[in-house]
Write a structure and sequence with these properties.
six-stranded mixed beta sheet, Tetrahydropterin Synthase, Chain A
Length: 158
């Protein structure tokens, strides 16, 4: 394994609600949390400032998080009440975001992809996001971790 520098950045304060309509228990009901996301980055070489990732350059990622999760209602694309949620959105009662899966595990994978798309486009693959922790509160979190293939291939080519 190649040596790497790592760092992490947490974004927090995204109050939103969702429901797991297939769940037999109370998670099937609409409920909310103030989500937070911790991103773990790595690079084999530091940038010109001596950083793995310049945190001040992540405003585009932060904006996407805010747009998706700040005061929004998240619903699965296959929710049987989707038409009703869309009607409430049209009436201005909720700010709807339709997702493949609203769960924390899937949310972690989704924002992992956003971070890596940004880093690959902007930095040409010098750095990557290898892990995201999606937290719904102080007790519950889910993680997604993977090194993007384009980053691994770059490391193997050197």
């Amino acid at each position: 394994m190649t040596a790497a520098y790592t760092c992490s950045k947490t974004f927090s304060g995204y109050p939103c609600c969702h429901r797991q309509w297939r769940h037999a228990g109370h998670c099937r009901f609409v409920h909310g949390y103030s989500r937070s996301f911790c991103f773990w980055f790595q690079a084999e070489e530091l940038d010109e400032n001596g950083f793995v990732v310049d945190f001040s350059s992540l405003s585009e990622l932060e904006q996407r998080l805010r747009q998706q999760f700040d005061h929004t209602f998240l619903v699965n694309a296959d929710d049987p009440l989707l038409e009703q949620w869309q009607s409430l959105h049209a009436q201005g009662a909720l700010d709807l975001r339709v997702m493949d899966n609203v769960g924390m595990e899937a949310s972690a994978a989704l924002v992992w992809d956003w971070a890596n798309t940004l880093l690959r486009t902007r930095d040409g693959g010098r750095s990557c996001c290898w892990k995201v922790e999606a937290r719904e509160n102080e007790k519950n979190a889910a993680c997604y971790s993977a090194v993007p293939t384009w980053f691994s291939n770059k490391a193997q080519a050197n």
